[in-house]
Amino acid sequence: MKKQELRAIYKQKRKELTEDQILMLQEKIYQQIYDLDISDVKNVHLFLSMKKFKEIDTRPLIAYFRKMNKRVVVSKCNFKSTTLSHFYFDENTSLELNKFGVPEPVNAEQVSEEELDIVFVPMLISDAQKYRVGYGKGYYDRFLANCRKDAKIIGLNFFKPIKQIEDINKYDIALDKVIYSI
Question: Which residues are noted in the entry as substrate-binding (predicted)?
Fold first, then answer.
């Protein structure tokens, strides 16, 4: 199937998940993340979840990485260039919702993509080759293209990868790992 079809299907599948199902699925994902070797990691990039889209709640992951003395980094959308800027996210960082309802840092120190050791990526679905389908604006594709080659790119998703996304293009970047629940 093509990305547009997959996007519609998996938005609907996510919408149909109950709160109890989401809590159970998230716990399975969290446990896989807690089992990762992060001994050499300094900076962890996480997305700030959008509850209205039933995204995986990253707040427990933020708390976990802080407890493990890792610096957490989050993004802010640049709507004119359709790119992301990245900022350290600590206890003193304020958040504001952007025009799409995405929480973004307001008073934080900017970070280069080159400083990121692990990037956790949101998605709707991925395939066996570890390509992902996101919301379709290309923000993460542009972001990931600027990350270090040795940075680990890990997709987080409730659903098991499908066999293949038919319309992968030269701008799509394969993930290093996909963590999913069902």
Answer: 48, 55
Detail the residues annotated as belonging to a binding site.
3-7, 48, 55, 132-140
Residue ranges of domains in the chain: 3-180
**Residues in the annotated binding site for substrate:** 48, 55
- CB burial readout 69-84, b (16+ within 10 A) else e: ebbbbbbbbeeeeeeb
How buried is 157 (Cβ within 10 angstroms: 0-12 exposed, 13-18 middle, 19+ buried)? buried
Collapsing DSSP states into helix, strand and coil, what is residue 99? coil
Neighbours of 40 (CB within 10 A): 7
The pair of three-digit structure tokens given for residue 99, joined into one six-digit string: 């025009």
Name the amino acid, one letter, at 158: F
Nearest-10 crossing angle of helices 19-34, 59-67: 20
pTM: 0.95
The CA-CA-CA angle for residues 98, 146, 94, to 5°, reads 30
Per-residue model confidence as pLDDT tens digits over 86-143? 999 999 999 999 888 889 999 999 999 999 999 999 999 999 999 999 998 899 999 9
CATH number of 3-180: 3.40.50.10420
